[in-house]
Amino acid sequence: MDTLMNFYNLLQARFFGPFKSGGEVVIVVHGGAGNTPDERIPAKLKGVKKAALEGYDVLRCGGTVVDAVEAAVKYLENDEHFNAGKGSVLNANGEVEMDASIMSGNCIEPGTVTVVKGIKNPVSLARRVLDKTPHIKLAGEGAHVFAKNEGIKIVDPGALVTGYAQELLELHKKGELSDCGKSDEPDTVGAVAVDCRGHVAAAASTGGCTGKLAGRCSSSTTASGVYADDNAGAVACTGHGESIIKFCLAHNIIQEMENGKTAEAATKQSLVKMHAKLKTRGGATAISTRGDVGIFFSTPKMVWAYVKGGRLHYGVKPGQHEIICFEKAK
């Protein structure tokens, strides 16, 4: 059925334009909440813009929302300026261990992988878990074997280690970075999308936090960090993972949306509550099945971008919201 629907969507988009059912096609991408050094902002902002456009092109050409969020996050995994895939930070042993998830709002189906090494694009491995297994999560060596069997690209783990990640680990060892998950450098990247029928999806990918213990799992592999439900919307969170799990942040935002709040109000209220209870900061992007967007972060910065109504929206600091024509953005 999914294959048939994808084929129909592709024909519709190629020959008749996007299918219209009263809804709106929207994709939102974030590059992690934190306090990124100013000199790293231009590259990160360029990355989230390109990722949003990448995902939007998938939707315009008849792809599903799951296809779109996978494409957007995969783009960020391939950009070493982000803490995902190639740019992942290092654990206490100097290794890259990554987590990723992807979730379809149709029957609230997730696929996740955790503590994986040498996987170029963990979000695509999470997609295979969603599509090819009856499971929700695969970890470590088991996930690696599954990746080999599925033809997922595997690289030497050292190929994912960047000089910047090594610099951060050295700062951590000297005590010049705060506790794991509370440092100024952004972590998880994510994407949420809705199609014209109101179907939603969410995805996230992360290297975790600098100096974490080997084997640590992030909030990105739980319903606290990523959630999608066609009855409400989709959410992708970023920030202090342990706090996000304690507060069940993503699901909390979804519940607020189910109770009638807009994506914007639900996202802001939930993050304010989390900070009041746990004294930790973070960010989230959300989208409702109606296509309204919610972006909020309690950190100094979070690079984000979304495409809606033929325009590309983006920002970095609280209150910043720039808009340019979609065609000019390309």
From TrEMBL:
Keywords: Autocatalytic cleavage, Hydrolase, Protease. CDD domains: ASRGL1_like (cd04702). Transmembrane segments: none annotated. It catalyses: L-asparagine + H2O = L-aspartate + NH4(+); Cleavage of a beta-linked Asp residue from the N-terminus of a polypeptide. The active site is at T188. GO terms for cellular component: cytoplasm. Gene3D superfamilies: (Glycosyl)asparaginase (3.60.20.30). GO terms for biological process: L-asparagine catabolic process via L-aspartate; proteolysis. InterPro entries: ASRGL1_meta, Ntn_hydrolases_N, Peptidase_T2. The record marks D187, T188 as: Cleavage. One of its GO terms (molecular function) is beta-aspartyl-peptidase activity. Heterodimer of an alpha and beta chain produced by autocleavage. Belongs to the Ntn-hydrolase family. Has both L-asparaginase and beta-aspartyl peptidase activity. Does not have aspartylglucosaminidase activity and is inactive toward GlcNAc-L-Asn. Likewise, has no activity toward glutamine. This is Isoaspartyl peptidase/L-asparaginase-like. It comes from Agrilus planipennis. The gene is LOC108732801.
